[in-house]
Write a structure and sequence with these properties.
This protein has about 120 residues and is an all-alpha fold. The protein contains five helices and no strands. Belongs to the complex I subunit 3 family.
Length: about 120
Amino acid sequence: MNMILFMITLSLTLSIALTALNFWLAQMNPDSEKLSPYECGFDPLGSARLPFSIRFFLVAILFLLFDLEIALLLPLPWATQLQSPTSTLAWTFILILLLTAGLIYEWAQGGLEWAE
């Protein structure tokens, strides 16, 4: 218990000290060059604050969703070496079916079509 209290106190003290040091040493003198948008050395041609298409975010979220679910399948080669791998293989089959059903649903809804 004493070691846990020491580690919590040390972490809290170090965090507060580094945050205070950052606020104390930070240089806050913005000028027009730092605040202007940068486009390869040229003057900006349009507004830099135009919103992105929602399709970019949809594709990114779909990628993260399917990528993280595939990561659940990575321990499968070790799970097949267990005494009874049938339940593990059944859960894997169910997970792959759910991923396939999600992909088919997104495809049918038009979420994977880039151009309209």
